[in-house]
Specification:
The protein is mostly helical and 132 residues long. The chain contains five helices and no strands. The chain has one domain. It is 67% helix and 0% strand. It is elongated and about 70 Å long. The mean pLDDT is 94.
């Protein structure tokens, strides 16, 4: 007997949501630190209080079906992200949630490295007396 099922791929939506929240965190950091003269480091400045990790952690699915679906659709990418992070031997640790966390964090850091300077420059233009 053949059966057809439909699964919902939520990984990119979760990455996009985390990126938007980190973007908001960056803008809030700039507002709170108006003397900033360069884009803040995502690790040392932006995540000083754990905000970035909290955002990524809350982006990881918690329901088994969604975790299993994510692994079914993106297993190779999740394993690669886990191995790249160097956090352990078993990418299915904690039901595979740790690897999903590593994947989302990797995409967030990648986005930050590509976009933070542009956001900073725009903020600087808007907030400096001479348009910098």
């Amino acid at each position: 007997m053949k059966r057809t099922i439909e699964v919902e791929d939520t990984l990119q939506d979760r990455v996009d949501g985390a990126v938007e929240e980190v973007k908001g965190l960056l803008k809030q950091y700039l507002e709170d630190n108006p003397d900033t003269d360069e884009p803040p480091c995502i690790n040392n400045d932006l995540d000083y209080g754990g905000g970035v990790h909290e955002i990524v952690d809350s982006s990881v699915p918690i329901y088994t079906h969604e975790i299993d679906t994510t692994w079914y659709l993106h297993g190779n990418d999740l394993e690669a992200a886990y191995e790249y992070a160097g956090v352990g031997e078993n990418p299915r640790e904690n039901n595979g949630m740790a690897a999903i966390y590593c994947y989302i964090m990797g995409r967030v850091v990648e986005w930050y490295n590509e976009n933070a300077e542009d956001i900073f420059d725009e903020w600087l233009k808007e907030n400096s007396p001479n348009g910098y």
